[in-house]
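Input for the complex:
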Amino acid sequence: MQAERLEDGAFQVCCRMDSTAEDVRATLTDIHALLQDQEMAPPPDNNWELVVAEVLNNIVEHAYEDRAGGDILLRLVFAADRLAVEFTDFGRPMPCGTLPFGAPVNLDVSEQDLPEGGFGWFLIRSLAENLDYHHDGDRNRLTLSIPLG
Amino acid sequence: MQAERLEDGAFQVCCRMDSTAEDVRATLTDIHALLQDQEMAPPPDNNWELVVAEVLNNIVEHAYEDRAGGDILLRLVFAADRLAVEFTDFGRPMPCGTLPFGAPVNLDVSEQDLPEGGFGWFLIRSLAENLDYHHDGDRNRLTLSIPLG
Amino acid sequence: MRLTTDHRDGVDIITVDAARIDAAVAIQFKDRMREILGNEKPRYVLDLSQVDFIDSSGLGAIVAAMKLMPRGGKLELAGLRPAVDKVFRMTRMDSIFAIHPSAEAAASA
Amino acid sequence: MRLTTDHRDGVDIITVDAARIDAAVAIQFKDRMREILGNEKPRYVLDLSQVDFIDSSGLGAIVAAMKLMPRGGKLELAGLRPAVDKVFRMTRMDSIFAIHPSAEAAASA
Ligand SMILES: Nc1ncnc2c1ncn2[C@@H]1O[C@H](COP(=O)(O)OP(=O)(O)O)[C@@H](O)[C@H]1O
Ligand SMILES: Nc1ncnc2c1ncn2[C@@H]1O[C@H](COP(=O)(O)OP(=O)(O)O)[C@@H](O)[C@H]1O
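Predicted:
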């Protein structure tokens, strides 16, 4: 993990992680600790970390199909009121080459039929802005931003 | 309730009861006690009482539609190896003027769909012989016999 | 992933002794919850040793009682006397209920 | 119709203190069984006050845990911190679970 203060005062963090849920978790807790240290941590009810976790978990689960050994690159730029994030992976592209719609799940069902998954892209789309995705050669690149404060 | 020893050595019991589950129960327990007294009781694994109870409960429930105030006449003749029974009521006739088929219930269902009724005529047909039913004016008469011993 | 349980005022409190419930521990969390909630499998034995007569209404009532059991719970039968046993066998309801010779046998089963 | 209950070796034995289960008592029998088995409604409160992060896998795992509950049982939540609370509200899962401010509040509810 590398961190630096940019010229415009924003705080940039770059990390590389392996395609496992454990590595995603370790990376996120490291970033968390770093932000506390730098007194750069967004307020506790801001869900920037949720957005980043959902995208990373999807890369592990879908782009790399839950196989370890895949590279994931993450770049976060914390500005005063906005976080910009860039995700890069070398796994399978998004289905149809485009971002999932992320419809809300249906809760109008019996208790036994309540959904246990499929919340991810709904949460990402609810919390993030300026989503952009490109598959390019063997590389997937997703960028988005999250309002802070 | 009247009881008498017939010339051929059989033991005859005649009763009249009201169309309630309570009266059916009271009648059956009285007959039971009388048979014990007379040392005429069939062996405990003989289900004559079940057959009589099922027919009587059906008369209460279906012929008199669970309304008290209906008359039910019962005659039982206990011979050495056979019980002959005659039931008379003045309620609704059997559907289609004939005895129900009494198919076994379907247990090949989920626990919540297991049948809580509909066993009656299956049990009657499994245990009784020589079933005969006539609707005659305002009277239903059913006769049957049950092997004893 | 540590979960601790504590019984307070008739309620079971399960405390998640962890800062995160995420993809890295989701399966572990489910397994631990299964262990805790899985103990909630009541087993009842209906002792019929004093019952010498049952009719189809009584049989239906026992089926209805079984359906009241919480999910995963069991209603078993014990001490069926001959006439009662025969009703269960004739209706094949002996294939639906576990049937024990006596309540004692059921308790030590 | 008298039913007596007795707990022996981890099993609840319900004894029918009656000679007959017939049409005359079938409803009474069902009502008494409902009273006895109806007490089997476990209530669990999941105390999340130490959890400051949950993702959709964690949310899914809590839904899965709820489905493990015996029929009629309840899994309630307590002590949701802001980021966790928001995930429940955004996914409308706050309409599925009873949510208490704290485990103490849940226990006295
Ligand atoms: N990084 C990705 N690469 C390929 N497919 C993806 C990716 N992220 C999401 N998907 C697809 O989008 C679907 C919806 O994702 P999501 O809303 O997170 O639900 P879930 O992951 O629980 O199925 C996934 O089931 C998957 O088919
Ligand atoms: N005495 C009767 N008079 C009129 N209808 C009857 C009588 N006995 C039985 N039936 C009809 O036959 C059906 C089957 O009876 P049974 O096998 O005892 O099941 P159940 O009474 O539980 O419905 C009843 O539902 C009813 O429609």
